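Proteins fold. Shown next:

***
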Amino acid sequence: MGNKVKLFDVDIDDLTKSGALGIVDAALNKKDKMFIATLNPEIVMYANSNPGYLRAIQAADLKVADGIGLVVGARILGLPLKERIPGIELMEEMLKMASAKKLRVFLYGAKPAVLAKLVEVLNEKYPGIQVVGDRDGYHGNGRQAADHVIESKPDMTFVALGFPKQEQWIYDHLPEFPDGVYMGVGGSFDVLSGTIKRAPLFWRKLNLEWLYRLLRQPSRFKRFLVIPQFLLKVLKSRK
């Protein structure tokens, strides 16, 4: 995968979005099995204090810096990452790839209404893809979802259960899954379905998407406190 940047106990691939997509494309062409983790400071901090989850994250074949805090933290340590790779943008590019190649896609997670709307949106926006299975994150259990994936034999599986559940679920079942790409995508189903609005491009260009989300959803305040905690930990770790 090339160069990696280590933040505490987590190795992050130092890639551009186009570079990451090239790796995904190669894995699909070779019919390999690939686990992608999209990381942010909250995930890194949680993994740092939860050995089981850290094992799951480190098992990912591709670990990309979704959160701008990771890019800033790496820069502070003198180990700059090439760029931030938002998980939702990586997913969108993968869906374009799936449409062009007429690949099989499986969707797992989110509320039933959100998932149903997402399937409609994807069929309309990416006509070449085959949505071969979908399960919401509120009915059934992880074992049933895993069996559904095994039966469906998708080329791409997107899991929107939120961390740490989505990465742990992929890790736990990966050995029995068919070849393909498996990726945790957090709240991307809500955005791509149109249920939640993503930050306007202006905010994204300024790397302030996190602030836009906080202003729109003040209830997330406690979760965002991890960003300054993470950066403080980075500063203290400098030699």
